[in-house]
């Protein structure tokens, strides 16, 4: 193992291993990892399929410097660290690196934190920044994708993505589409297998528009549509069908670049209890726009969507508002809180949303009784009817931290739900499950599920490979690390053949 401390910390590692004894986002599995580590040949229990030739890249939140207000630190504000599990010939190696964003480099150079978080409201105005510094800190902690043969890490407040070396994860620079977009680009682009395009959107809350675009595999823009946005809706993800880009807007508003929000220590979010939920459909080719109203809830992530006659079926995870009409300080109660505290929001749930284009209506149905997040499909069926959804979730007995305790496979055809807890004590904490199709697959679930799990007994993580058709059976491989991978958000399997 090569174990290289990262560049000197702004304030050094925490004395006691903790910066806060009360903030759950700085403790246990969430405690930051300061070392950049390379492991050549990981211990494998079981057998890694030799067909797998590529890397699982994961983005995680990993705060580098002691926050100015540790009690207010939010999980979403941690510096981005990317973890790569490289698989070839049945062997697995690993490395992790911070994404060297402008904000991280400036804080290192200054020897102290300079930026407020976007979500964790401190109530303290941000310090004066050096000339040319970005106004808010991009942390590139949300997702990692491949485009144009490159590995790109991403946040959702920039007009570019961060270009990483696929092997050692060095930050090589910004991938900015030649400066074409003047908007905050999503960290949730999706791939349309029917057209072989990447679809994405960008938001601009100074000029109040949303733009949607598609890209060829080489990263060239293949279409671009744009429309006005009447509200500063918080939008973290979108979904698409053959003909539409689809957005759901709930009660949250966001304005990271506002003069009274992040730089004043007030957080970027606000909560609008009295407004209806809205659905925005943008035609992919013509840019024609249709707005619908629905009851207000927050769509967190989308599994998939498809057209069925006059209807559009959308499967998603949703955070419901438990106290309709309540006025909530969103800076204190972000939905999806993984803490065991009273909250005006539900935990995340699996919902089916049906848009009826003939009646201009939206209906909602909750699926199952379990908690569910980080939904992923077999991406080969996106935009068309799917049968299966995979997700992280909570299932009885619920964990005490509102975190996850299982992976879930839901069969929309039969209604069957399967749970994988990995241990009978329900204490392992899984991350997002990534589906990887077997070459020449004969069914939608003929492939593997790759996910990183945290084991509190070892204070360490492991990559677990499940056969998707034996979802609740014994894993086919457990690949052990000696250190934890702090829980993060998203990532992707990138085959070696997809990289230059
Ligand atoms: Fe996300």
UniProtKB/TrEMBL annotation:
Q: Entry cofactor note text?
A: Binds 1 Fe(2+) ion per subunit.
Q: Does this UniProt record's set of keywords contain Transmembrane? A: no
| Lipid metabolism is among the record's keywords | no
GO BP term, example: carotene catabolic process
What EC number is given for this enzyme?
Answer: 1.13.11.-
Question: Which cofactor(s) does the record list?
Answer: Fe(2+)
Q: Which UniProt keywords apply?
A: Dioxygenase, Iron, Metal-binding, Oxidoreductase
Q: Which residues bind Fe cation?
A: 188, 236, 301, 490
Quote the Pfam families the UniProt record gives: RPE65
Q: Name one GO molecular function term.
A: metal ion binding
Top EC class for this record: oxidoreductase
From the UniProt record, list the coiled-coil ranges.
none
Q: List the InterPro entries hit by this protein, alphabetically.
A: Carotenoid_Oase, Quinoprotein_ADH-like_sf
Q: Which family does it belong to?
A: Belongs to the carotenoid oxygenase family.
What is the name of this protein? Dioxygenase
Q: Which organism is it from?
A: Allorhizobium taibaishanense
